Every structure is written in structure tokens, then in C-alpha cells.
Amino acid sequence: MIPRQEKIAVMGHVVAGDVRASQVASLIDVMVESGVKIIEIQIPFSEPIADGPLFLKANHQAIQQGVNHEVAFELMSQVSAKHPAVSFVFMTYVNIIFKIGYEAFVKSSVEAGAKGVIVPDFPIEHSEEFLQYCEKYNFCNIQVIPPNIDDIRLAKLCSKSSGFVYAVARLGVTGKHTDFGDHLDLFLGKLRKHTKLPIAVGFGVRSYEDVSFLQGRADLAVIGSRGLEVFLEGGLKGAREFWQSVTK
After folding, report:
1. Which one from 29, 47, 51, 182 is the annotated catalytic residue?
2. Do 52 and 174 contact (CB within 8 A), yes or no?
3. Where would you tag: which of 184, 203, 227, 234 has the fewest CB atoms within 10 A of its CB?
4. Which of 6, 18, 33, 40 is catalytic?
5. Cα–Cα distance between 222 and 204 in angstroms, integer?
6. How many whole angstroms separate alpha carbon 210 and alpha carbon 183?
């Protein structure tokens, strides 16, 4: 999906149909124009357990506006066709996929232009059927890996991941401040021993300084909550200034 490279790339996140639904596609345009290389589009869910208050609210507002997986697929089709040089992935929760049907979800995602999916609450022990369809349709299953994982489970998750792996910089939900330091170096070092895939680091990446810290340590810096905060505070103009500042 994205090759290992010398300069770290930036990955962004939007919720399909969130608080300013009519501007989500425009926000994605801004992110792409600013140099964001991968964008995850979240399919709204009522109980997004990995998300902090900001994205929890965005999920609930989207659902209240009638946004469902069909709206998310439509958005994916629109932006992936408009920006073929960018990799788009879905982010959602297993209940959504189960309700749609494993094969139907993967097939529809590929048809919409998605390269893969991030599902933080899908136990690897129960995902074999889903993984078969991912392989069948050449669709990436991107594993989320927490920092308190033991070596046995780490090896298992890495073996089932494709595209890249998503390393969680700290325990908890999105949106909180993260102090990057030696503990993250130890975690990423251990992760590198178990996979040759690119490593994305998320949860608490909020600034150019954070991205710079991850340079040489990871392949992707994932910015989620801070990107939405800036958009809500300053609209598309503020978003453009922010995304240009973290991709420079």
C-alpha cells in the first residue's frame, strides 16, 4: 500500500458524514493537496470503543444524520476516483462488517476503491473467514497492535496483517496527549523484529514535532483527533494550514 521509505508519510482520518457532512469531501481534498498519503474513512458506529470523545461525538452525529455504510461507500468511491495517487482505507468496527456480511463488505469496499480496512475490535481468533475474503479480493487487513502485547500474540497479529501494521503509541482511546519516548522506541523495536511491513503509529500524534519524532522510527504518522479539532476550529482554511504544517 505504501513502501518503506526514508521520509515518513502522514496518514489522516475522517468520519464519513460527521459534524460537517457536506464538507468531508472538501476536507479530504485539502488533506490530499497538502501531501497526506493515506486517508482512513471511518464508517460511523454507535459504540466506537477505540475512539475518544471527539470522534465518539462525530460518530453519533453522523448516525443521527442518517449516515450508514452505504453513504461511506459512496464517499469512498467519490474520493478514491478523484485522488488515484492516494491510498484510502476504511476504519470501522466488527459489528458493521458482520451485519453487511464478510464477503459483501470486502467486495463492496474493493469496488468502491478502498485498499484495506482497520478493525480495532476484531479478535484475530474469530477472523479467519474474513481474512480468506481479504486474500481473495486482494484487500488489506490492517492489524491494530497495542504496546502491552506479548511476543507470541505480536507474532500472530503481524502474520495476519497486510498493507501495514498500526502501532498504538499508548493504551486508551484516541484524542489524548501522548508522551513519546523510550517506551515507544522499545515497542517499535520489538515490532520491527516481527514484520517487514510498514509501521504506522497513531494515538496522540498532533503536531509537526510529533511527526518529526517518528521520523526514522516509523513509516507513517497517523493524525486523527487533532485534524478534526483544527477543522472544527478553523474550517477548511485552518485545516489546510495544519495539514501543510505536518507534511512539510
Report:
1. 51
2. yes
3. 234
4. 40
5. 9
6. 15
CA distances 204 to 23, 99, 138, 215, Å, are: 24, 31, 30, 15
Residue 59 has pLDDT above 80, yes or no: yes
Question: Is 51 in the active site?
Answer: yes
Amino acid at 188: L
Q: What is the pTM of this model?
A: 0.92
Nearest Cα neighbor of 15 from 112, 100, 46, 36 is 46
75-102 average pLDDT score = 97
Q: How many CA atoms lie within 13 A of 145 on its CB side?
A: 32
Over residues 189-206, the pLDDT tens digits come to: 999 999 999 999 999 899
For residue 100, what is the enclosing H or E element? Answer: helix 94-100
Domain 9-247 part of CATH 2.60.40.10: no
Relative to beta strand 38-42, strand 140-142 is unpaired
Report the percentage of the chain scoring pLDDT > 90.
Answer: 77
Helical segments of 121-181, H only: 128-136, 151-159
Locate cell 492516494: which residue?
86
Expressed in percent and rounded to 5, the helix, strand and coil fractions of the chain are 50, 15, 35
